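Let's inspect a concrete specimen:
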Amino acid sequence: MKRDRIVCECLKVGEKQVVACIRDGKACSLRQIAACTGAGGGCTACHPALEALLEKEAPKSPAYLPSPSFSAR
């Protein structure tokens, strides 16, 4: 069985917990991830990893709303 990768060393929060929070529509920002899991609320060293997970997983969430495209005209 594959071990869960720790993304927040300060609070020992695993990637699976963060991904579940994003996919369940509970988090679409770093602040919301911190509220949901605690990750990112300590030293902030994990913010780049959390942002990468948001970018990768948010489109898979039922709560995801893509930014509207605007023309340059």
Helices lie at 15-23, 30-37, 47-57. The first helix runs from residue 15 to 23. The chain has one domain: 6-60.
